[in-house]
Design brief:
Length: about 325
C-alpha cells in the first residue's frame, strides 16, 4: 500500500539524515534541512530516527493515503489537515485509508516534516533515501514529488501510540529574526577589520534565492577586502581564492556584497573565500528561515560550538526518554 500524491506542493522531497562519506567525490550529504524536527517526527510515530520522511517547503502537498497509517508533522507551523479538518502539530495522529492529507500555509518557519509509521519504503542510494535533485539521486526518482507519484509505506517494527506529543519546551523556537553563531574561517583575514565589524553588526535579510543549496542574504553594508595581487589560479573577484573545500554551513561573500550560507545540497569546494562557518547546532535554524526573515552573525569559539552541540544532543536525548516511557 502507498500514499498517492494529488498535489506535490512547492518543493516536497523525500529526506532522511543524509548520506555521509561521499563529499570528497562531490556528492553532498543532502538530508533534512532541519534535522531536529525530522527526528522529532520519526520519534512520535516510533520509527527509526533515520527513516525517510517528506520535507515540505512553504507550500505543502496534498496526499491521499491508500491504507490506514499513523503520522506526525513537526517543524514549520503548517498544520496538517485530514479531509479539511485541522489536526495538531507535533502529535501522533491516525489517518484512514482514502482520507486526504493537506497542509495550512506556514505561519512560522519554512519546512515541515511528515513522518509516517513504517517510513517511506524507497530504495537506498549510497546508503540513504535522501533526495539530491542536482544529481538525480535518491528519494523518489531523484527529484521533487509530482502529481501522480505513489510512495510505498514500510512495515512498522514497533506500534505507534496515537495522541502522544512533544512538550512545548522541547520544540524548536522559530522566529522571524534569529542570531546565527559562527566560527570565523581561515579566510576571514581577507576582509578589512572594518568589514569584519560591519559583517557582525549588520542585520541580513534572507533573499528569494534561498534553497537547499544555500541561503543568500541581503541588506547589509558592502564589505571590503584587503588589497593583494591575486595568486595564480584565483579569479579576478577580490573574494576569489585558489580552490578550497566548503564545509556545510560555510559563508562566502562574492564581491563582498551578499553573504551566502551553504547548506546540505551545496557543492564541496570552489574558488570563493569562506569567512566562517555556522555551527552545527544552528544549521536547523537556517532551514526554517523564510525569505525576508532576518539574521545577524556572532562569532564564537570551537569550545563554545562543541558545548552548543552537546546541549542540543542532550535535549534530543530527553525527548527520546520521554517518548519511550510516556
Amino acid at each position: 500500500m502507498s500514499i498517492k500524491v494529488m498535489k506535490p506542493g512547492l518543493a516536497t522531497t523525500v529526506q532522511d539524515q543524509g548520506r555521509e562519506g561521499y563529499y570528497h567525490l562531490g556528492i553532498p550529504p543532502s538530508g533534512a534541512m532541519d534535522q531536529y524536527s525530522m527526528t522529532l517526527a520519526n520519534l512520535l510515530v516510533n520509527n527509526n530516527e533515520n527513516d525517510a520522511v517528506l520535507e515540505c517547503a512553504l507550500l505543502g502537498p496534498e496526499l491521499r493515503f491508500e491504507q490506514d497509517a499513523m503520522i506526525a508533522v513537526c517543524g514549520a507551523r503548517m498544520s496538517p489537515k485530514i479531509n479539511g479538518d485541522i489536526m495538531p502539530l507535533d502529535t501522533a495522529v491516525s489517518i484512514k485509508a482514502g482520507q486526504i492529507l493537506s497542509f495550512t500555509y506556514p505561519v512560522a518557519g519554512a519546512r515541515a516534516y511528515l513522518a509516517v509509521a513504517g517510513g517511506l519504503d524507497l530504495p537506498l542510494a549510497l546508503g540513504s533515501r535522501s533526495t539530491y535533485t542536482l544529481g538525480s539521486l535518491g528519494g523518489y526518482k531523484g527529484r521533487r514529488l509530482e502529481a501522480g507519484d505513489e510512495l510505498p509505506i514500510g512495515i512498522q517494527e514497533y506500534a505507534a501510540k496515537e495522541g502522544q506529543s512533544i512538550p512545548s519546551e522541547f520544540l524548536p523556537t522559530i522566529e522571524k529574526h534569529t542570531t546565527l553563531r559562527i566560527i570565523p574561517g581561515m579566510y576571514i583575514h581577507r576582509l578589512t577589520d572594518d568589514a569584519v565589524t560591519r559583517f557582525y553588526e549588520d542585520q541580513w535579510t534572507v533573499g528569494s534565492e534561498a534553497d537547499r543549496i544555500g541561503y543568500r542574504l541581503k541588506g547589509g553594508r558592502p564589505m571590503d577586502f584587503n588589497p593583494r595581487e591575486q595568486p595564480f589560479g584565483a579569479g579576478s573577484d577580490p573574494s576569489n581564492i585558489v580552490d578550497a573545500c566548503y564545509p556545510i554551513g560555510s559563508i562566502q561573500i562574492p564581491a563582498g556584497k551578499e553573504p551566502i550560507v551553504l547548506h546540505r545540497d551545496a557543492v564541496s569546494g570552489g574558488g570563493y573565500a569562506t569567512i566562517g562557518t555556522v555551527i552545527s547546532a544552528d544549521m536547523d535554524l537556517i532551514g526554517q528561515m523564510q525569505p525576508n526573515y532576518t539574521t545577524q552573525f556572532t562569532p564564537i569559539s570551537m569550545d563554545e560550538a562543541l558545548i552548543a552541540r552537546k546541549l542540543k544532543q542532550q535535549k534530543l536525548n530527553q525527548v527520546r526518554t520521554l517518548l519511550k516511557h510516556g
